[in-house]
TrEMBL record:
It comes from Franconibacter pulveris. This is Sugar fermentation stimulation protein homolog. Residues 84-221 form the Sugar fermentation stimulation protein C-terminal domain. One of its GO terms (molecular function) is DNA binding. InterPro entries: SfsA, SfsA_C, SfsA_N. NCBIfam families: sfsA. Residues 13-80 form the SfsA N-terminal OB domain.
Length: 234
């Protein structure tokens, strides 16, 4: 996935109201960016970090600039735009670059399913194969080389695990895919210290037949793509 037009850089002043961030450009101009991330963004939004942002062609938007990447002061690169995770996974699915999920002939997005009226990120289908339901979660919280999800208590994420367990119990294929969007992460684990309920449900989900996998993105200010499978330690 290439960033077109190219991203521009600035220095982070502060993130506030969850969805907004002020930055200062190399020319000294202060801009307010849209922040497409509802999480805590721990370690991803330190004042002084370099921010890479995109600009919408629709300049009538109240906030036409969108925060895409953070380059930390320790040299890590992080994609903070959570919408990019699904786009990366879809690109990889279409190109059959994820061996565990290759060979399907139909890829549908945002399909309604489950008793709790959820929408699955992707449903894969093929003749003579059971349907495959994939829920994608982006991982950006890094602690000493390990990536943790979630970075804040997630009732919605807990619901998604229950729905995936129901899918697995019905005999269809259920997959939780962690898209790792932080260059310093080498393995993934549930954030038991943040959301113990989610961590417990994730262990239960795996025992119930939900497949849990993680793929890391190769990141730069010009492009990014899923490239490497990582271990998930439950």
């Amino acid at each position: 996935m290439e960033f077109t037009p190219p991203l521009q850089s600035a220095t982070l002043i502060k993130r506030y109201k969850r969805f907004l961030a002020d930055v200062i450009t190399p020319q000294g101009e202060t801009l307010t960016l849209h922040c497409p991330n509802t999480g805590a963004m721990t370690g991803c939004a330190t004042p002084g970090d370099t921010v890479w942002y995109s600009t919408s062609p629709n300049l009538t938007r109240k906030y036409p600039h969108t925060w895409e990447l953070t380059e930390t002061q320790t040299g890590s690169l992080i994609c903070v735009n959570t919408l990019r995770a699904n786009a990366l996974v879809k690109e990889a699915l279409l190109e059959n670059r994820l061996p565990e999920l290759a060979g399907y002939t139909s890829i549908q997005s945002e399909v309604k399913y489950g008793a709790e009226r959820s929408r699955i990120d992707f449903m894969l289908q093929a003749d003579y194969r059971v349907n495959c339901y994939i829920e994608v979660k982006s991982v950006t919280l890094s602690e000493q080389g390990s990536g943790y999800f979630p970075d804040a208590v997630t009732v919605r994420g807990q619901k998604h695990l229950r729905e995936l367990m129901s899918v697995a119990a019905s005999g269809e294929r259920a997959v939780l895919l962690f898209a790792v969007l932080h260059s310093a992460i080498d393995q993934v684990a549930p954030a038991r210290h943040i959301d113990p309920r989610y961590a417990g449900l994730l262990e239960e989900a795996q025992r119930s037949g939900v497949e849990v996998m993680a793929w890391k993105a190769s990141l730069s200010a010009t492009a990014m793509t899923l490239t490497s499978p990582l271990a998930v330690n439950l």
